[in-house]
């Protein structure tokens, strides 16, 4: 257990593989079998795959061959892993080079860490050649090599380490089947031997929050998130791979200021920060190494391990918030962060510190750690305004931003003016959060009277029957399912004192029991509010086994205290049975004291295991008194593993869970008119023609109605519905350049089509899944099913119609031909054979033509 608590599972695998490789190369005579028992059972498969890769490498170096059959005879229990290793795609050769390492005194703290505890770590940066520093952080025990000792994690082959810090290790990696390159970030190691399981859980919480906070954001100056996954117990997520140099190196090549480069980089950095703030997000750790500039001059902000939400989300007031302790990098952090406070002004302070350093070549303050932070709080940085060798406007901006008092720093508008960006259209649209679909001011909900009545009926039946009840809310994408439930739960049920656990299934997450996992954070938050005695009465004996499935539960100190090694000795079936028995007992205990409501959004992306476990947990008799609200997209219900498993269990159950279904549909014209009137704050009778146009453009889909309503000008009172084509073009502008060819191909396909097929037709070098993922966040496409059968379709039929309407006849013809050529290649037939086959006459009423001959 000490080893588990000290470092992450994957870091432990790295250490074991490094030792194995060292012993093998030196002729130590040890075999894979000697190392397999060094890792807990939860990491056994991961360790085995990496030991085999290391063994193959050693054999090749010594001129010996490595055969699948030989390994299979030794390790028949790992047959699937061996087949994947031997018959999957091969690992790309790592690139060689060097990279400057920069010690920035990064402080990597969980939110609850006291402010006087500082941990300094090393952070590596990338350069334009895509190389990596061979010197890793001190004290980790890893070999001085850019190539990881362990070479595989999940479906990814690790090529080289890109950077290491308090918030994780980042690798360049290649997907084993898609062959796409990504940046892969692992859960950070825990450096202290005295750290307990609660520390690991806290880091896991922050790690998952980093992904979930950013995964829905697309912006040209923010790195794109792709997937959150787990291998054994090792969590990791993937991001777009950014090849570039840090902000300081870009703006000061050869340590000489390049004013043109600096101004362009500042403009992009401003846009990226501004887009975060518009979404109520503060980065808290902006610094040169977290800001990379590619060879084409495009800038990306990275590393969101310390992101925090502002109070008054959506108001962007910039008001300070207080957390439990310092988090950030002292060299660039604002002085108020020393006391756990943060605001939008904190990010602009870091922006000023980076600007100051780029202009002068020096940091605004000397020192490290606590001393440096105290200097920032008490002293002013040396002014740059009087220096003649520095542009006067940028010097003034740096001095203003570095004021110790956050309230005295310039506002976002003033910063934009000083940078000459006040008139850019992007600043009015980048990252804007639209008002909730079909919601309005004063908590008003449009056109959902019938559905609210049905939800109220379900709630009343649940209260009266004293048993579990499931209400499933279905509707097409963008029709307001989530808004409906959120509005209902914010009303009388919340005032009656119900505990509401809310979660969501993400199509980009591949984690065990994802539907249940999604509500665990809320469950943890509830348990952490309970006094120790009351908490002990709630927790079942097998809560440590449940915490093995959902490690974030260990953020509850009493659960962490009860940890033991017992679950390591249980087989998977025993562990699962006892874990979910404990989950059921816990919900029974909670629901006997407090009305308990669970809301899980986007159930169409849930997994079958979640459906099984959740159904068993809520099934009578003697079930917990839980009201389950689950929403899902009706157009994807036929391919949903969760919904299929849930339906089968309901049909086969002797005592099925009481269930209600609520259908959400598109707006009628009267509802659309009401929304227009509420949205623009005036009577809508004079806008009948506009409403009819909106209905024609959107088919009454509330999401698209909201999008097109941006054409109203409050200043003039004039309204012009924005064409949906312009909305689509605006979304594409924030995406990579390959987005449009992919979207054109998806539209031409006419139905959900394999991701790989779309990529080939669009002429993409790999599957294009990364770009499709970002297109999905912009509600241009939807991903259907899971790998390897994952398909893609337009988000809504109106998107397909709009895209097709903008394609010329020659463009359509070209794409149709490419689809035909792809089908010919995949099916092994040619066009003439198909035409001949279709033109032949059957001999009788039955089609007895001979099979189609393939060349």
Describe the structure.
The chain is an alpha+beta fold and 855 residues long. 43% of the residues lie in helices and 14% in strands. The strands form eight sheets. Strands 3-4-5-6-8-7-18 form a seven-stranded mixed sheet. It has a five-stranded parallel sheet with strand order 17-19-20-16-21, sandwiched between helices. The chain has a three-stranded antiparallel sheet with strand order 9-11-12. Strand 7 (225-231) and strand 8 (234-239) form a beta hairpin. Residues 1-6, 89-145, 190-196, 312-322 and 428-442 have low confidence and may be disordered.
Helix proportion of residues, in percent?
A: 40-55%
Q: Which structural class should the secondary elements be placed in?
A: alpha+beta
Give the spatial strand order of the biggest sheet: 3-4-5-6-8-7-18
Rg calculated over all Cα atoms: 29 Å
Give the overall average pLDDT: 80
Tally the beta strands.
26
The number of helical elements comes to 34
The percent range for strand residues is 5-15%
N-C termini distance: 61 Å
What is the approximate shape?
A: globular
In terms of per-residue confidence, which ranges show pLDDT below 50 for 5 or more consecutive residues? 1-6, 89-145, 190-196, 312-322, 428-442
| Main beta-sheet strand count, sense and barrel state | 7 strands, mixed
């Amino acid at each position: 257990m000490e080893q588990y608590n000290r470092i992450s599972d994957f870091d432990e695998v790295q250490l074991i593989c490094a030792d194995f490789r060292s012993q093998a190369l030196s002729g130590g005579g040890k075999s894979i079998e000697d190392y397999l028992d060094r890792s807990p059972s939860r990491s056994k498969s991961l360790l085995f795959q990496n030991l085999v890769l290391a063994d193959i490498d050693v054999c090749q170096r010594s001129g010996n061959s490595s055969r699948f059959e030989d390994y299979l005879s030794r390790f028949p229990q790992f047959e699937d892993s061996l087949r994947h290793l031997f018959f999957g795609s091969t690992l790309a050769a790592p690139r060689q080079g060097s990279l400057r390492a920069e010690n920035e005194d990064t402080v990597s703290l969980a939110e609850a860490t006291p402010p006087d505890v500082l941990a300094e770590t090393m952070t590596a940066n990338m350069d334009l050649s895509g190389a990596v520093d061979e010197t890793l952080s001190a004290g980790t025990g890893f070999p001085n090599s850019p190539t990881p000792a362990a070479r595989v994690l999940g479906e990814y082959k690790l090529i080289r380490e890109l950077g290491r810090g308090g918030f994780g290790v980042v690798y360049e990696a290649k997907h084993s089947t898609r062959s796409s390159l990504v940046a892969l970030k692992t859960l950070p190691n825990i450096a202290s031997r005295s750290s307990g399981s609660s520390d690991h859980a806290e880091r896991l919480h922050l790690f998952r929050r980093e992904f979930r906070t950013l995964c829905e954001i697309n912006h040209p100056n923010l790195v794109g998130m792709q997937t959150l996954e787990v291998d054994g117990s090792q969590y990791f997520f993937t991001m777009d791979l950014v090849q570039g140099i840090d902000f300081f190196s870009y703006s000061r090549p050869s340590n000489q200021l390049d004013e043109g480069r600096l101004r362009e980089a500042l403009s992009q950095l401003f846009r990226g920060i501004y887009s975060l703030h518009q979404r109520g997000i503060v980065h808290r750790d902006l610094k040169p190494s977290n800001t990379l500039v590619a060879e084409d001059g495009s800038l990306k902000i990275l590393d969101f391990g310390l992101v925090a939400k502002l109070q008054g989300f959506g108001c962007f007031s910039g008001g300070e918030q207080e957390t439990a302790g310092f988090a950030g990098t002292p060299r660039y952090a604002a002085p108020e962060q020393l006391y756990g406070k943060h605001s939008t002004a904190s990010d602009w302070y870091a922006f000023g510190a980076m600007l100051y350093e780029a202009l002068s070549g020096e940091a605004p303050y000397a020192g490290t750690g606590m001393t440096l932070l105290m200097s920032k709080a008490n002293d002013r940085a040396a002014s740059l305004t009087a220096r003649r060798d520095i542009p006067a406007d940028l010097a003034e901006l740096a001095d203003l931003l570095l004021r110790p008092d956050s309230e005295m720093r310039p506002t976002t508008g003033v910063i934009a003016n000083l940078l000459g960006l006040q008139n850019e259209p992007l600043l009015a649209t980048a990252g804007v959060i639209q008002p909730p679909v079909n919601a309005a001011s004063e908590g008003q909900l449009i056109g959902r009277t019938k559905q609210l009545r049905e939800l109220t009926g379900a709630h009343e039946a649940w209260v009266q029957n004293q048993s579990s009840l499931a209400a499933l809310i279905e509707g097409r994408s963008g029709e307001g399912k989530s808004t409906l439930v959120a509005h209902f739960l914010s009303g009388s049920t919340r005032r009656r004192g119900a505990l509401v656990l809310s979660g969501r299934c993400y199509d980009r997450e591949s984690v065990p029991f994802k539907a249940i996992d999604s509500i665990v954070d809320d469950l943890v938050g509830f348990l952490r509010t309970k006094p120790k005695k009351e908490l002990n009465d709630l927790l079942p004996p097998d809560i440590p086994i449940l915490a093995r499935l959902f490690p974030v539960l260990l953020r509850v100190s009493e659960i962490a205290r009860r940890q033991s090694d017992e679950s390591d000795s249980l087989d998977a079936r025993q562990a699962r049975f006892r874990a979910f028995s404990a989950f059921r007992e816990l919900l029974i205990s909670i629901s006997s004291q407090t009305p308990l409501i669970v809301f899980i959004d986007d159930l169409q992306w849930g997994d079958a295991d979640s459906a099984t476990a959740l159904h068993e947990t809520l099934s009578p008799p003697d079930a917990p008194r839980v009201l389950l609200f689950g929403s899902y997209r009706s157009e994807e219900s036929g391919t949903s593993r969760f919904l299929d498993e849930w339906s089968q269990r309901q049909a086969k159950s002797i005592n099925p869970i009481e269930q209600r279904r609520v259908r959400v549909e598109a707006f009628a014209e009267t509802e659309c008119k009401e929304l227009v009137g509420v949205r623009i704050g005036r009577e809508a009778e004079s806008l009948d023609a506009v409403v009819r146009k909106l209905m024609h453009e959107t088919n009454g889909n509330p999401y698209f109605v909201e999008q097109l309503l941006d054409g109203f000008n409050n200043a003039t009172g004039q309204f012009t519905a924005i064409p949906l084509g312009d909305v689509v073009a605006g979304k594409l502008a924030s995406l990579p350049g390959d987005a449009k060819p992919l979207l054109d191909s998806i539209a031409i396909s006419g139905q959900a089509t394999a991701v790989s097929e779309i990529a080939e037709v669009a002429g993409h070098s790999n599957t294009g899944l990364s770009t499709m993922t970002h297109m999905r966040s912009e509600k241009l496409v939807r991903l259907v099913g899971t790998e390897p059968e994952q398909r893609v379709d337009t988000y809504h039929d109106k998107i397909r119609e709009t895209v097709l309407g903008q394609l010329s006849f020659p463009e359509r013809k070209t794409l149709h031909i490419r689809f035909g050529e792809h089908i010919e290649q995949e099916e092994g037939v040619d066009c003439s054979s198909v035409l001949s086959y279709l033109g032949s006459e059957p001999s009788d009423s039955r089609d007895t033509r001979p099979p189609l001959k393939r060349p």
